[in-house]
Design brief:
Keywords: Metal-binding. This is Glyoxalase-like domain protein. The structure is a single chain. The chain is about 20% helix and about 40% strand. By secondary structure, the chain is an alpha+beta fold. The chain has a single domain, classed as Roll (2,3-Dihydroxybiphenyl 1,2-Dioxygenase, domain 1). The two termini are about 20 Å apart.
Length: about 140
């Protein structure tokens, strides 16, 4: 089992519109999706592609905002009111194989495998098992990134 590419960096924010303005004005981002709700995860999501070299997309940022007080992000933002890096997301070709591999290594998986913002299966690994970093593992999108 081997991890694939870094798909995105998750950034928690108290306001997606304010964060989008920052990425547009300060970072020069032009490829920004419309925000959408993921009620099963308790978040609103928006993807921003930072500019890369020669007009290509650079790193993808997933902006995540709580949908309400029961969101898992509510506690994170209580500790970090301005928001901040929330997680890293790596791709794998087969989510079931990846889950079994991480379980075999004794890594703690947070919750069931579910469908993530890219429409593919995901799960999260406990930060204490991943050098202090909440880590999302997602099955590679079919037909590209």
């Amino acid at each position: 089992m081997k991890l694939g590419r870094l798909n995105h960096i998750g950034v928690a924010t108290p306001s997606i519109p304010e964060s989008v303005a920052y990425y547009r004005e300060v970072m020069g981002a032009t490829s920004i999706t419309e925000p959408f709700d993921l009620p099963e995860q308790g978040v609103k999501v928006c993807f921003v592609d930072t500019p890369g070299e020669n007009g290509t997309n650079g790193t993808q940022i997933e902006l995540i905002e709580p949908l309400g007080p029961d969101s898992t992000l509510t506690g994170f933002l209580a500790k970090n009111p301005a928001g901040g890096q929330h997680h890293l997301c790596y791709e794998v070709p087969d989510i079931a194989e990846a889950r079994a591999w991480f379980e075999g290594l004794g890594k703690r998986i947070l919750g069931p495998t579910r469908i993530g913002a890219h429409g593919t299966p995901i799960f999260f690994l406990h930060p204490k098992d991943m050098m202090g970093q909440l880590t999302e593992i997602m099955e590679s999108p079919r037909g590209g990134h």
